[in-house]
Design brief:
279 residues; 11 helices; globular; eight-stranded parallel barrel; single chain
Length: 279
Amino acid sequence: MLADELRGDTAVIAVELRPPRAELGSLEGMDAWIDTYHEIRRLARQGIPAFLTDSAVGTREENNLRHLIANLGRELPRQMVTPFLTSKHTLDFCLSYAEQAWQQGFASLVVLGGDTSVGPPRCVEHAWDLRQKIHQREPRLSLGGWANPHASSTRQVDFLLDPRFCAEFFLTQVVSHLNLDPAKRFLEEADHRQVPIPGMFNVFYYRSANPNTLAALRRFMPVPVEGLLNEFASGATAIDVCARTVRALRTLGVRHFCICNLPMHEASTILAAIVEQTR
């Protein structure tokens, strides 16, 4: 399972993909899911794990688990795919979701609180509340949590060390080489206090320096707008910018990465180009 891979000697690079939006028409939605299945299979053939989000940035998305079960086929190893589950559903839905995930062969699940500023309310106050309930219902499922290097490092590590955190691994909020200090502080605190569970750092693939897009993204995550504008203006490509963050984080000792916001229909191709620049 993913947690075991993250504890191993081999660095892991994964991708985060977004399911089709729920409001798409039936034909458009079907085409989008076909693209999703094909891309997940391409990534799996290359040994690249994929995460599938749940209502990313407040946008209601199709039920990722239902479609994965119906369409991935048994030939694809389920350990290559880790769904996200936010607490922005009913508690019954969340617990049933986790139980079904295990029954269908998915070994890992990332359980997050979900953005409180948009969409439906959470069914629990904190994500660890939901992870605890899921662990009681299905203890064999490996759970992932969340950490935010841009918040207080001391407080974030407190969360990771708290027995109630109830996770075997964690992902981080997006970080960038254009603002490395938060990642440095977080890593130093985690190392000093010997956080025992492995983590993956999220790196965002900024497709362009469109000011309107960057402003919209800033509602949900830290975005180094000025630095990105300068890099793209100097001739850097989206692949260059993403690879620079991976390289910078590696100098800090980070080994595991999740690349977010790759275009669905060419995620594996772009990821290969990013990886090539980081060798």
